[in-house]
Amino acid sequence: MSKARLRVGVLVSGSGSNLQALIDSCAAPDHPAEIVTVISNRPGVKALDRAKKAGIEAVTVDHKAYPDRESFDAEMQRALDAAGVEFICLAGFMRLLTTGFVEHWSRRMINIHPSLLPSFKGLNVQQRAIDAGARFSGCTVHFVTPEMDVGPIIQQAVVPIHQDDSAESLAARILEQEHRIYPASLRWIAEGRIRIEGERVLLDSATHPDTSLLNPAPEATR
Ligand code: GAR
Question: Which of 110, 95, 61 is nearest to 81 (CA)?
């Protein structure tokens, strides 16, 4: 008999391109995870359409309908329990979660963030990386802990920042890499290859490409 697949709930607030990457990855017949529900805190977003199109339950829990974060999170918890969710992926979910909720899902909830954490936590991170003069940015998949954008890092991808970049062009370059690393990280977790030691995440049978990046390339200097 085949092993039960990890039941994943994805929380979204917007376009859901990361959700789509997760949906596409989990569609592989041998994939060890299955997305059982998608919950949005904003009505009518594209992510909900993506879920429906894939035949996945699409739920709206509009945060504006709740008087405080506690009651909103309690409703989210009810929806997750009703779907039998075992593991949560935050995919462009733009609400802060209460400590109680985060602790309940400790080591069972991951997030993707469009910077190389621990640099540039919070909002507007692409513009802030450009303004700081950083030569590289990227994205980070990490376990969620009560402090925002902090928590053991599972995987990162690096992209260059070009001198003619806008926040939008940089965001698009980063997003391409988000769509690679988020599904990969979820797969590792569902395969049971990940363990957490202190702040570090260790991956069984990890390979170590011996590469380094320079930006601008040295041949540009005379
Ligand atoms: C992504 O860039 C994601 O990393 C970011 O929002 C975007 C959502 O895009 N998340 C955060 O900033 C969370 N702090 P998507 O809806 O197309 O996946």
Answer: 61
221 C-alpha to center of ligand 1: Å? Answer: 35
Rounded to 5 degrees, φ, ψ at 56 are -105, 140
Q: Is the torsion defined by CA of 67, 94, 132, 117 positive or negative? A: positive
What is the residue type of 117?
A: L
Return the best residue to mutate from 113, 153, 176, 185 for the ligand 1 pocket (most ligand atoms within 8 A of CB): 113
- Position 36, amino acid: V
Domains and CATH numbers, the chain: 6-203 (3.40.50.170)
Residue at 80: amino acid letter: L
Rounded Cα–Cα distance for residues 112 and 207 (Å)? 22
Find the 93 Cα to ligand 1 centroid distance in Å. Answer: 7
Residue with the smallest CA separation from ligand 1 atom 5 is: 92
pTM of the full structure = 0.97
Cβ-based neighbour number of residue 202 at 10 Å:
11
How many angstroms is it from 81 CA to the middle of ligand 1?
24
Amino acid symbol at 85: V
pLDDT tens profile 12-71: 999 999 999 999 999 999 999 999 999 999 999 999 999 999 999 999 999 999 999 999
Instruction: Determine the atom of ligand 1 nearest the C-alpha atom of 122.
Output: 14
The question of whether 179 is a catalytic residue gets the answer: no
